[in-house]
Specification:
129 residues
């Protein structure tokens, strides 16, 4: 069966897209690997915050990479005092391309992250059962 020019072009485009996807995935993976060990804080809230008291900090540390997702240790205490800790949270929103001056993820040092973690652990240890 003879290929038409259209089918030849479709085949060439699909091959080029596959190759471009592999190049971009490799670059993305390299960028994500550079984030391992870095720490961030994010100003979190529930939908439709009305005032400053409706916000709190979520702290994140990149612990690894799995596929296209970063693995994150994240913790936060919300405006109601509810604390959540997630280990190996898969975060697609935090990636190198989102870490610009306009990003909601603010880079912080490991010292600040560790101080917040230690403070959280101290509060948890203070709970009497």
């Amino acid at each position: 069966m003879k290929k038409t020019r259209e089918s030849e072009l479709v085949e060439a485009i699909e091959k080029a897209r596959d190759e471009l996807s592999k190049i971009r995935s490799a670059a993305h993976a390299k960028q994500n690997m550079e984030l391992i060990g870095r720490c961030f804080k994010y100003r979190n809230s529930y939908s439709l915050p009305e005032g400053p008291g409706d916000y709190w900090w979520m702290f994140c540390k990149v612990t690894g990479v799995e596929g296209d997702a970063l693995l994150i240790l994240e913790f936060q205490t919300d405006k109601y005092g509810e604390t959540s800790i997630k280990k190996d949270s898969r975060n697609l929103g935090l990636e190198m391309s989102h870490l610009s001056e306009s990003s909601n993820y603010i880079p912080i040092g490991n010292d600040e992250f560790q101080a917040e973690w230690d403070s959280l652990i101290g509060r948890l240890q203070g709970i009497k059962i």
